Amino acid sequence: MSGPRDGVCAVAVMAKAPRPGRVKTRLVPPLSAEQATQLNAAFLRDITANIVRAGASVPVAPYVAYAPSGAEDGFDGMLAPGTALVLADGEIPMPAGIDGIGRSLLHATTALLDRGHGAVCLVNSDSPTLPTAFLVAAARALAGPEAVRRVVLGPAEDGGYYLIGAARAHAALFRDIPWSTRDVTASTLARAAEAGLEVVVLPEWYDIDDRASLARLARALASASGAASGSQAGEMVLPFPAPATIACLARLDPAHLLADGTA
Question: Which CATH class is domain 9-254?
Answer without folding.
Answer: alpha beta
